[in-house]
Specification:
By secondary structure, the protein is an all-alpha fold. Helix content is 74%, strand content 3%. A hairpin with a 2-residue loop joins strand 1 and strand 2. Helix 1 packs antiparallel against helix 8.
Length: 287
């Protein structure tokens, strides 16, 4: 039972990472109306900018992470304006296919600049704590705390600020939002900045808890898609719940089956839930 409890705790950490990785993806899906596959590569941009500043430039971790998040937010905005805005009218299918190409461009650029190999940050080794025989590190606790803080902060931002309310209105009905005087272009740019910044935060977390390779970020897209599909098109809280469900299911499955099948478990959970609730956890149907 202790081993099963260990997998459960690890699953919570994985779920919290998936929450951070998926919130921005889901926000872009709701506001821009398409699945941005390139979102996963923004995690890699942030992770390797953090690594470069921390290891190569000898910056402390925190300034490296802050710079990486801001840099990734700007990269996401530039990508949105250069690659997606000109073809927005062609529809979500064209945007989806284009985003796959953008993902390869970003991933290839990172690969060319960084090169192959495994890398880690120049940070102290994780401190392990034991509670009733279950182990958890200080870095894992930071991931859980960041997910909770990010979710709370984003909820307040979306419900209490002018730009947050504008993003929510555009997500619900772009035409109605425009008729009420909301600047669609400005709101779209704010969405790209916010969603890409959240991807940057997830990338920093990825650098903190994992060894880095240039293909690591692209491997996250399947899990991000699983969480986003399971959550549906509802509130932030449905994304958080979906992230925890997928994370716990994947890690607890290792108790019975080989770890290599974790992504399969993620989509198995999605399929089972959607058989009962086709609109996802949110209860809202896709547009």
């Amino acid at each position: 039972m202790t081993l099963l409890a260990q997998y459960f705790v690890t699953g919570i950490v994985t779920g919290c990472f998936l929450i951070l990785a998926t919130i921005g993806f889901s926000l872009t899906r709701r506001v821009e109306g398409f699945l941005n596959i390139a979102h996963a590569e923004l995690l890699g941009v942030s992770a390797f900018v953090t690594w470069g500043l921390n290891v190569k430039a000898a910056w402390p971790f925190l300034p490296s992470a802050i710079f990486a998040i801001i840099f990734t937010a700007v990269v996401g905005l530039v990508v949105g304006r250069l690659f997606y805005d000109p073809i927005r009218k062609l529809g979500p299918a064209v945007l989806l296919i284009s985003s796959v190409g953008v993902a390869y461009v970003i991933g290839g650029s990172v690969d060319a600049l960084v090169g192959t190999g495994i890398r880690t940050l120049n940070i102290p080794l994780a401190t392990t704590y034991r509670f009733f025989g279950v182990r958890i590190t200080d870095y894992q606790m930071i991931v859980v705390a960041l997910a909770a803080l990010t979710g709370l902060s984003l909820a307040v931002f979306m419900s209490k600020t002018k730009i947050g309310l504008a993003i929510g209105a555009m997500a619900d009905n772009p035409e109605l939002a425009a008729s009420r005087g909301i600047d669609i272009l400005q709101t779209s740019r704010a969405t790209w900045l916010l969603s890409s910044g959240l991807a940057g935060l997830a990338g920093v977390v990825l650098a903190l808890i994992a060894t880095l390779s240039t293909d690591l970020a692209f491997h996250q897209i399947l899990q991000i898609l699983a969480v986003a599909i399971l959550a549906g098109l509802g509130s932030l809280y449905s994304v958080m719940l979906a992230g925890l469900i997928v994370g716990i299911a994947m890690d607890m499955s290792v108790f019975w089956i080989p770890a290599g099948y974790r992504p399969l478990i993620a989509f198995a959970v999605v399929i089972l839930v959607l058989l009962v609730r086709p609109e996802g956890l949110s209860g809202r149907k896709s547009k």
